[in-house]
């Protein structure tokens, strides 16, 4: 169990208090870029838009802020210096693009707050909504995301990839994102305990004080995609001082309830969940296919149950849209303004 006072001084608890008990994370970022016409069939995926269409990146951030998000994730999920270099960019250009991902999100927040002061709709007239706190979380996708072959949903990097390989791979990008002024580092779609350990050691070695969250991609209600147990993975997150929240993302909604229970056994840090639509990603065809069983895209109705199970940050991942996030914001904020859910 995490000891009180061990983590980066109550950053997330203070934030959650300001949000009224629970916070709204944004939804599928790449999904929304595609809805606006971006072609993301590329090794850089959503990060490609940092080069080709930064205005769309800003636009998507604004879509999610308009939907009620308290936390927006930058377009850096698949942005790595190594990935940009493979595309023919210089190291400096790669670093600039990483910094831009944070700057664009910060610009969007400025624009949004500015717009709020001028908007007089009913929703915006509610001061608690209008002045709600908004954090910029620098997205750090896993090494598997950089490989751009769906590895973040498998988590088997082979014996040649060690903790040291992963630390060296992520080191510079994490430092750049922090220096660019992110409020939080969102380590997302972590597929195995090896990478969780690498992140924890990296934060310590580099003396990074920016708070971080660890979010795992899971294949059922007790294991991350590699087969490592979520309990073990959450325990690694629990023992990392900089980690202020632990959870799961890009995971089918049907597994979320069980996963929350296992995470709660490993840590007392706040728990975050931002599931995907419940479809499965097929790397070979670069497509999402429906899983058997009921459609799960409308998981908004489960938020109350997940809250009761102990989660306090809610959002969406791949194939979710601002509509999902609006639903979550209404569930957590609109209906019961004085108390979360
Ligand atoms: C494959 S998970 C992707 C997470 C990332 N924040 C995005 O929505 O684009
Ligand atoms: Zn996703």
UniProtKB/TrEMBL annotation:
Keyword Metal-binding annotated: yes
Cross-referenced Gene3D superfamilies: Homocysteine-binding-like domain (3.20.20.330)
Hcy-binding domain span: 11-332
Binding site for Zn(2+): 250, 317-318
Gene Ontology molecular function: methyltransferase activity; zinc ion binding
Pfam family, one: S-methyl_trans
Protein name (database record): Hcy-binding domain-containing protein
Organism from which the protein derives: Glycine max (Soybean)
Lineage, broadest ranks: Eukaryota, Viridiplantae, Streptophyta, Embryophyta, Tracheophyta
């Amino acid at each position: 169990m995490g000891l009180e006072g061990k983590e980066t001084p109550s950053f997330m608890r203070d934030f959650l208090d300001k949000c009224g008990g629970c916070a709204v994370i944004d939804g599928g970022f790449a999904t929304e870029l595609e809805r606006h016409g971006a072609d993301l069939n590329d090794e850089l995926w959503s990060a490609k838009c940092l080069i080709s269409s930064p205005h769309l990146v800003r636009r998507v951030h604004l879509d999610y802020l308009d939907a009620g998000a308290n936390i927006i994730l930058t377009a850096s999920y698949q942005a790595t210096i190594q990935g940009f270099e493979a595309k023919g960019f210089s190291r400096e250009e790669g670093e600039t693009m990483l910094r831009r991902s944070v700057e664009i999100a910060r610009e969007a927040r400025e624009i949004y707050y500015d717009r709020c002061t001028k908007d007089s709709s009913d929703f915006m007239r509610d001061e608690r909504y209008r002045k709600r706190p908004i954090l910029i979380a620098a997205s750090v996708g896993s090494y598997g995301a950089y490989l751009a072959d769906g590895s973040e949903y498998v988590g088997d990097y082979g014996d040649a990839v060690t903790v040291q390989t992963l630390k060296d791979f992520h080191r510079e990008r994490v430092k750049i994102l922090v220096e660019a002024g992110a409020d939080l580092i969102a380590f997302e779609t972590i597929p195995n305990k090896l990478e969780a350990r690498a992140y924890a050691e990296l934060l310590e070695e580099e003396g990074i004080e920016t708070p971080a969250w660890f979010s795992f991609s899971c294949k059922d209600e007790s294991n991350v995609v590699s087969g490592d147990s979520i309990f073990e993975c959450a325990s690694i997150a629990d023992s990392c001082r900089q980690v202020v929240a632990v959870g799961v993302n890009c995971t089918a909604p049907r597994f979320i309830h069980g996963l929350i229970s296992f995470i709660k056994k490993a840590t007392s840090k706040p728990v975050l969940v931002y599931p995907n639509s419940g479809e499965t990603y097929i790397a070979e065809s670069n497509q999402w296919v429906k899983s058997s069983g009921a459609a799960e895209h409308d998981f908004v109705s489960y938020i109350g149950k997940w809250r009761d199970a102990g989660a306090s940050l809610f959002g969406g991942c791949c194939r979710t849209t601002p509509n999902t996030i609006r639903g979550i914001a209404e569930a957590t904020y609109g209906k019961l303004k004085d108390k979360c859910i």
